Amino acid sequence: MTRTRSDQASKIPVPYVIAYSGELDTSPIKFVRSPIGGLRLSYEHPHEGDWRYGALCARSGQSREGRPQWRKLNTRRQWDCMENLLCQVCGNPAQDRATGRVPWIVTDAVFRRVGATGGLASAPPTCLSCIPVALSLCPHLHVSPAIYMVGNSRPASVLADMYTPDAEGRAYFTGEHNVELPLWGSTNLPFAFAHQLVMFISEMTPMNVTQ
């Protein structure tokens, strides 16, 4: 069952990953002492699961109420699509049952090549059924899109806003937005307010863009 919704004003299908104005979470954040020592960013009233891969993950509501925020992604749904390989348009499993591989639309804005058959993708996969509507309606996909069938994927990094503490532990935005931090080997994850998960995708086989 598709989870795509329509913008009533324009009748344009709203992709599953798009944020809505009624989902904004403005819970205050601060720095606290981490269980292993040192400081880390935290919500003032922490919940289980706030931290993912060592970084504080931005909360987001799931009501899908209000107006679509076309330039913003819902953090929780974006991560859900990445980790569970769900289609960013309809929210259903993106894996092709016939081949076991996952269709992925990439552009220069959301993909960086790493090696001959892999790279880093900040946009989730798109199932075969939703590829035509995505290519026709999304303006970001009108500039040199490429479609691949992907054989393997794993979490690699996060895109985050960076914060620094004062003497009282209050959190101050450094002005650094959408900083990419690797999930392993980075000492900056405790200072990160993560909004998007980035996947390393590999075993990429090109598809015809008209399919």
Order of helices and strands: EEEEEEEEHEEEHEEEE
Largest sheet: 9 strands, mixed
Q: Assembly state here?
A: single chain
Helix fraction bin? under 10%
> How many individual β-strands?
15
Q: Residue ranges: pLDDT <50 for 5 or more in a row?
A: none
Judged by helices, strands and strand pairing, the structural class is mainly beta
Mean pLDDT: 91
Radius of gyration: 18 Å
Q: Can you tell me the number of structural domains? A: 1
Sheet-strand content, in percent, reads 35-45%
Number of helices: 2
Distance between the termini: 22 Å
Shape: globular
Structure keywords:
single chain, nine-stranded mixed sheet, two-stranded antiparallel sheet, 2 helices, globular
Q: What's a concise summary of this model?
A:
Helix content is 8%, strand content 39%.
Would you mind describing this structure in some detail?
The protein has 211 residues and is mostly beta strands. The protein has one domain. The protein has helices at residues 75-84, 131-137, and strands at 5-6, 13-14, 18-20, 29-33, 39-43, 51-52, 55-57, 68-73, 102-106, 111-113, 118-121, 146-165, 171-173, 179-182, 192-207. The strands form four sheets. Strands 6, 7, 9, 10, 11, 12, 13, 14 and 15 form a nine-stranded mixed β-sheet that branches. Strand 1 and strand 2 (13-14) form a beta hairpin. The longest helix is centred in the middle third of the chain and has 10 residues, at 75-84. The protein is globular. The mean pLDDT is 91.
Strand-helix topology:
Elements: E1 5-6, E2 13-14, E3 18-20, E4 29-33, E5 39-43, E6 51-52, E7 55-57, E8 68-73, H1 75-84, E9 102-106, E10 111-113, E11 118-121, H2 131-137, E12 146-165, E13 171-173, E14 179-182, E15 192-207
Parallel strand pairs: 7-15
Antiparallel strand pairs: 1-2, 3-8, 4-5, 6-7, 9-12, 10-11, 11-15, 12-13, 12-14, 12-15
